[in-house]
Amino acid sequence: MITLQGISKSFRVAKRSAGMRQAMKALFVREHAIVDALRDISFTIKEGEIVGYIGPNGAGKSTTIKVMSGIMVPDRGSCSIMGYTPWQERRAYVGNIGVVFGQRSQLWWDVPVIDSFELLRDIYKIPHRSYAGNLDLLTETLGLGSLLQTPVRQLSLGQRMRCEIAASLLHGPKILFLDEPTIGLDAISKIAVRQFIKTINKEKGVTVILTTHDMSDIEALADRILMIGNGTLLYDGNLDELRGRFGTHRTVTVDYRANATPLDIPGASLLSWSPERAVLSVDTEQVLMALVIARLSEQVELVDVAIETKPVDELIVELYKEHRI
Ligand SMILES: Nc1ncnc2c1ncn2[C@@H]1O[C@H](COP(=O)(O)OP(=O)(O)OP(=O)(O)O)[C@@H](O)[C@H]1O
């Protein structure tokens, strides 16, 4: 459904040094630097996938989304999405995609949300019947109700984000590009947005490409992760593969009836100890968890055992470290 082949994009940016003298000098001689935002990016995405596109600040995520949505023309490479080259056949292409930039609004600030929706209906030339059907469905699933009559500037961030997502789906696109859709949202709104993304993917078969810095978004949604750093694609795989690569350590917290002797479990290192609780680090490649639990119950009278895997954030940091970004 989506194929990018050797996409590169550079920006020429003016260099400005601090200080009055440098500012005066810049009036006469402009120095420039080249920023390689994307270097030879290639990947394919199949219909119905949810792909998490991640990477540190300035990695090139938004630039890729802009190229894929046809807003930006790359310097080199090809991109074919549902048979279209996004920046060449924009008019025909945009009917097939929805785009949400979490940091920017596509809604008109001073008018009620429904007015923006109607304008989008006219821009996209959505037939009245399918507009009404889509609007009903989105209003119900995103809980828009009274928000539709409210001017956008009066909405909270979470309410606005739900309206933005609805706006991007009114024309029934097959692909949804989401650039940081949960940025700044509270826990409840994040879960609502994630749930909705899952639903449209499952029920409508919408393919979703999602950029985020929130690894719990990735954990909740993404079948597959593409990681970019310094404009280069560095990882293409799923979360389980990543866990297999970096996530063999488990943290085991054990509560037991008071015991004066520190635990000594072969294959596990003691991170902290008190007469009633110990925290151990276990490398499951070196020792079986069942063996660790068996040894524990020989040494103390167990009250509770909690086993935690490495949080996804830490796995991603390991990946960044491996690639020195
Ligand atoms: N219009 C532009 N003009 C000049 N430089 C740009 C422009 N857009 C992006 N860049 C540069 O290209 C690089 C990639 O930017 P991009 O916005 O794609 O990163 P990102 O991965 O989305 O970052 P973030 O997570 O901070 O949003 C950065 O170094 C950025 O400064």
Automatic annotation (TrEMBL):
Q: Which residues form a coiled coil?
A: none
Give the protein's recorded name.
ATP-binding cassette domain-containing protein
Q: Which InterPro entries match?
A: AAA+_ATPase, ABC_transporter-like_ATP-bd, ABC_transporter_ATP-binding, P-loop_NTPase
Q: Which residues form the ABC transporter domain?
A: 2-255
Q: Which GO terms describe its molecular function?
A: ATP binding
Name the source organism.
Paenibacillus glycinis
Tell me which Gene3D superfamilies the record gives. Answer: P-loop containing nucleotide triphosphate hydrolases (3.40.50.300)
Q: Which domain of life is it from?
A: Bacteria
Question: Does Cytoplasm appear among the keywords?
Answer: no
Q: Which UniProt keywords apply?
A: ATP-binding, Nucleotide-binding, Transport
